[in-house]
Amino acid sequence: MTPRRTRAPRGPVVVRLLSLFLLATAGSSLHAQAVPWGLPVVVENPTAVARTADRATVSLVVPQAYGSLDPQADFHLVDDQGTPVPAQMRALSRWFAKRDDTKAPVKWVQTIFLADVPALGQRTYYLRTGTGPGGALVATSSASAVTVSTGAAVFTVPRNGDAVLGTVTLSGAAQLASPARFAFEQVDGTPAPMSVLGAVVERAGTLETVVRQWGEIVGLGLRFTARLRFVVGSAEVEIDYRLENPGGYGLVSQTGASVETQHFKSASLLIPLASAPNAVVEDTGSLPLPAGASWALRQDFLAPVAALPWLNGFMVERDGPLGVSFSVAERHPGAIALARAGGSLAIAVDRFWQNAPKAFRRSGSNAIVDLWPSFGAGPTYGGPYGGASTPNIDPLALSSYRFEGGRWKTHRLRLAFKTGSAHTPNQLVSLAERVRVPLVGHGPLGWNFRLGGFGEAVIESRAWPDVGGQRLERFQGIFARDDAADGYGIYPPIGLDGFRRRGGTYGGQQMYGWENFGDIAWDDGYCSLHYDIPATLMLGWFRTGDPAFLDVGRDLVWHRRDYDQLHTTDPSAQRRGGQFYEKGYHHGNFTAPAVTHNWVEGLLLHYLATGDEGSREAALECGEFVLRQHLENWNGWWGARMPGWALEALVHLWNHVGDAQYLVGADGIVDAWNAAEAANGSMGYVINPGYWGMPHAQSWMHGIMLGALGKYYISTGDADALVTMDRVATWFLTDVVETLPSGPSNQRTLARVWERLAPGYQADLSRHHVWSIVHGLSYAALCLNDLVYLGAADSLFQSATRYWQESAGTTAPQNWNDPQTWDPITWKPAQFPTTETKALGNIGLWGLALPAVRTYLTGQW
After folding, report:
1. Which of 90, 87, 37 is closest to 60 using CA atoms?
2. Distance between CA atoms of 366 and 42, rounded to whole angstroms?
3. Which of 248, 266, 268 lies closest to 258 in space, CA to CA?
4. Which residues contact 465 (CB under 8 A, 6 or more apart)?
5. What is the pLDDT of residues 293-335, one digit of tens each?
6. How far apart (Å, rounded) are the C-alpha atoms in residues 688 and 638?
7. Distance CA 186, CA 291 (A)
8. If we measure between CA atoms, which residue out of 59, 56, 84, 89 comes closest to residue 71?
9. Which residues fall within 8 angstroms of residue 155, CB to CB, at 6 or more apart?
């Protein structure tokens, strides 16, 4: 090994998160950017449908120094004419305290209001201090139901019985003949009734009220949680219906002894209308329904002969008065209306075709939404690493739905009631788009970052002056947009969305369907969103304000939250609450959750961006899992990523949830790391004694740990984090970095690092793992105020952003000035076939720190 660089540790430049990110300019109040009426909030409408009085939200950080305890009393909204807009304020988190601690200042506040935004346009509103107007929505509770009056309709949500929606009344006229309920069929076709166990007003307000209802599916061992959202002035109700299997997952002892996979034949929402429908409306037109005529619309999927594009496999079947018709390669927008004498019901199911199979039906006076229709089945489980072609070990999955222990699945649907004439096709298009793309606004892009909203080294998107920064923005961009990617050879620009559409690396990998949509295929099946790809999308939204990040990110977050986490309530399952491991063909079915493959930031950022309580619930479960792992006993096994990922998870939870138990757990991990590093000779690394007969340290895992220590220090000011940061960073420069780029820019060497190291041992040169080293060195530079570390990190970064696909065996210098020598930015990289999710997931996770640290330490913040 090369000689170590010795010097005195640098002093801290950060004491608390706020002191790092607070605006150095005038004032820490919302007046700081008040032009002309307050803090500007931009609401963008990326759809071709104009929005009128449509629900919009925006989430913003409130400076700690402002000391807001009640955002509803402290802030209000005005439009671009200075006219007050009725708004509802909600505390999403508080500074260093739980959100229900009303004595602690608000940190993140969500503003809910009704916005008017033109099609493919935007509108600016302004957040001001002082109380403003609210709405006229009223919710009351009785022993049997929660009643919500929006001003346009009155709804009741039962607190017992078997219905999700009790009554709906418009202008005194009942819209339902009897309560609407979910109906399940067991494998043999017999009913499995739903039993409501309770309902509460989860979020009360004068503009919006959310009622949470929960219960069980009798005979199936399943539970459900339904969240019903009501908005002032609206005759619509949005329902997030989450099916839950709380049973044991099985497979290995750490998940509990029992295997409680459940099967069911179908699951449908039955809505008994006040009178029989006489017409059905789709976005393409209206079809009369004679009395007694059947009607159904079925969205299904059959693998296409030519798997590129994979979208050609979708098909729609319509069964109506004129007979049965098939439409190949059709993806229905998921909105229909059933008209009847005196009224109409429009129904929109979000991500309808993406979550196939799905169906709409009319049966007598019933409108029926088949979330799991009886003509579907699967997944055709073939065991760990088993695909559809392997011998099937679960024959029930061939004719019914297999729902494993610990899984969730949420569907979002909206019911829109009206009296008088039927909904028009244009109104259905509008409804589908409003459900698909909710309006979410943002403040000035730098606002939340400069006020310390994230607790990490990250900054808003910029037009960077350097090639590395410019290419990093495009790397981030391809997670949301295909047009951010490079085309090369025979391949067009392929971003993440294009990667899903084409069926993965070579085509043929199904990333659609109710159990797959939102996850990403890779070599071992589905990656279970490893390396927190959802966080990359959510940070992309906050950094750019581009709704595409939120749109794609929502898909990934929902799968990560629901299907990629062990939600079992089995007390014997020590791994309950953890994210499923990446291995196994069917979404991590090969082994138990482990903190080495467990992330919560994407969940928490989705909650902050949207207020989604389900994402927060999953993050809290995950936090309990991390705390349960007792990492204070760690001594090097499983590598430095074991404490690194656990520490990072707890830091994110502390920042965004404010529960002191996470801080205590994080303290213990820092102490355990410092002790283990000292036991290894205080040389900046910890040897893993269990690696392949040759105990060694993996450098990229130490990059994870170094970054986690930096985030811990930023968020707490605890100098214990600094004890080893300088030694780890020095080890990186003296031993890990094999090639620090050198030479003139037109003949410059490429960065390489050693992946595996021990005293007297170096093995496996890597270019890809340069990203982790850049990440760790960036945090060391920030926390230790060290420009040497910053310079090394920047040099490595400039190489990695240009030549990210180069083989580690390539030693020839390159002309860094020539774009023709740079590797294409794409979700189909030639160097990483079938492992795109790892390669690009790492760049998404580790690429953002360097530009942020560089701007701070060079006075460009």
Report:
1. 90
2. 42
3. 248
4. none
5. 889 999 999 988 777 889 999 999 999 998 999 999 999 999 9
6. 6
7. 31
8. 89
9. 147, 148, 149, 165, 166, 167, 168, 169, 228, 230, 237
